[in-house]
Amino acid sequence: MNRRGLWILAYRNILRHRQRLVFLFAALFLCFSLISLLSLVSEGMGRNVNDSSRIHYGGDFFVAGFYGDNRDRPMWIDRPGEILDLASDVPGIAAPRSQLFKKAHLYFNGRSQLVKNVMGLDYERERDNLNHYGANSGSLDGLGEPGHVVLSSALAEKMGLRAGDGITLKTANPRGQVNTGEFIVAALIDDDTILGYYRLFMDRRDLNHLLGWGEEDFSSLGFYLDDPAKTEYWVGEMHSRLERAYPTAGSVLTRDDYYGEMEKAWKGIRYFVFSLGVYVSEVDDLLKAMDLVSYFIYLMMLIITFVSVLVTYNIILHDRSRELAVFQAMGMTRRQVEGMLLTELALLLLVSLAVGSVLSFLLLTALRPLDFSGIQGFGIFLKGGKLTGEFDFSRYCFNIGVILTGVIPSVWLLVRREVSRPLAGTLKGDK
Amino acid sequence: MRKPALILLLLAAAGALFGIDFQKLLADADNLVNYPSADFQARYTIVQDIPAEGRITTVASVFRRDREETYTIVIEEPAENRGQGYLKRGATLWIYDPESRQYNSTSSSERFQNSNARNSDFTRSTLAQDYRVVASEQVVLGQYRCWLLDLEGVTDDLTYPRMKIWIDENKLVRKSEDYSLSGRLLRTTLIPSYHNLGGLYVPYKVLFVEELEGAMVNGQFQKEKTQITVENPSLTELPGSVFSKSFLERVSQ
Fold it and tell me: Fewest Cβ atoms closer than 10 Å to its Cβ: which of A314, A415, B130, B151?
């Protein structure tokens, strides 16, 4: 029997046994659709975390100066102009920021709140990225004017304040002197994620004034690259450039590298270059936990898929044992019968994977309108409180590969066992 | 109305005439509440009044040895904080947690037990060392005739770079205001009464008023306050072991 004949025969067999095969088909496409959906959502959540962190920290990679004489290692770049010049050809937007971590208190009407992140930025440089948030009330453009701040609507609700209210910000400058500033809330943004909840954006010069720094000073220089895929290259390139001219830490590619370099002793300012992935230590544990949950569900889905397929296929083979024996009695070799059955399975898999793929996108579309922002701590994985999907071709191929690698060999073993039975006994009806 | 104004004018004129050394006045004010040749101990009752929330009372035993720049504080009440302790040696300040039996370093500028007092409020007074007088005037503060001095930090590493201070005719500080670098009033301290221990003084009641924290109650803004009452003060010699970690660990058991 030629190959074309085998495909035709397999196709006819599928049609003839469609009632028997319907459960196998359902098990295959349902499980594949759920696995694909899980991958889409998981990639989407990863993308949302990356997008939120990118805007929160202000770039895809960073040059930061750390002061070695103080055990808190405060951030400050002592040569702002030279560092900007050194990075003038990096393709993208350079975003100098002055930052305070867990060192500022916000006061309004007698209430006080520790602000975890105070980000002093240049609104004109970062306007396009900040517009990702969209103001709940007020206007983000207010950040372009001195004396204005933007904070999350969740924090505003907690403090009982609205856009247009005046607040007092209290912090200590690097020498420990308490300083305060009076600011107007320009806008509130919907970001109650672990990054955004206790964060305050303000004009960099205002924060510099509060800290007693020079007007053009900054603590880190971030880069929103035109092509974020080139982050690794630019981290290496900037590190080489800095290393040649200024005191620079060793190569920092991972969080462990970062902590390792931080534990070393040095005098004055030392420059570090690292990617967003290294910076996002706050969400790293959350991402790991999400990955673990995702892998666990993925594994469970695969086990369910394989067990369902094997049990169902075993029953189908059992039902068709006489028919297969007749094929052999009519002159088909065992190999040809095996080939016919595996071709049937291949056809079935092809259709199941196609239907499963379409179903996964439909399920994602159905999930999109649902608001998950009420789940505490989950906001960072969402976009505007909604789940989003991200199609990753390599992960899609990997999922197909896992299904094929699991299903085909195990079904083939069942098929071999079935066609190896003594022909006479099977035709007689022996089980 | 005319008489007090005239007296103040005369006093101000006398200050200018006799060339009052305000830096010495600050040093004298320090010396009255510092005990370089004795050890100090007392029982402190700290009542924090948080508008719209209520009152929190903390009772602590305070031991101070100014000549070694050290103090030990043991918390006795409330029950959940009993046994917590503070040990200051020079510039280092540890807080001891009896549950974990761990020490953590903390800062002198941090709040004491989350009240409106700072850890630095328990150390010796260093006004003359830390500040210079940039303006002065004679004022009446309640029943006291005082010098109101505007102070500016001598170094740029003081928590409060600016202060206003009211010193009475007995050279006792009756009121002070702590300001941020930008000139925002952050905290007011009132000391209406002192214990007199043979020429040295110990504040009897101290009231801290937090200017930025409080709540609206019945349509009025009420500020968060903390009142400290110092009882049973003594300037008798203490064993050196009181100013040690082992002392904190022992008394916390």
Answer: A314
State the average pLDDT over residues A293-314.
84
Cis status, amide bond into B78, omega within 30 of 0? yes
CB B94 within 8 A of CB B72: no
Angle between helices A18-57 and A393-419 (to 10 degrees): 150
Distance from CA of A182 to the nearest CA of B (A): 9
Rounded CA gap, B49 and B38, in Å? Answer: 33
In a domain? residue B2: no
| Residue B101, in any domain of the structure | yes
The enclosing H or E element of B104 equals strand B102-106
User: Which pLDDT score is estimated for B1?
Assistant: 42
pLDDT digits (tens, 9 = 90+) for A323-332: 888 888 888 8
pTM for this predicted structure: 0.77
Q: What domains are defined for chain A?
A: 3-52+283-428 (no CATH), 103-211 (2.40.40)
Q: How far apart are alpha carbons A385 and A379 in whole angstroms?
A: 6
Tokens 């299903």 correspond to what residue?
A: A407
Longest dimension (CA), chain B: 64
> pLDDT at position A352, please?
92
Residue of A nearest to B108 (CA): A176
CB-CB contact of A149 with A184 (8 Å): yes
* A289: Cβ contacts below 8 Å, ≥ 6 apart: none
- Mean pLDDT lowest for which of A1-10, A53-62, A349-358, B20-29? A1-10
Q: What is the CA radius of gyration of chain A?
A: 30
Cβ separation A179–B181 shorter than 8 A? yes
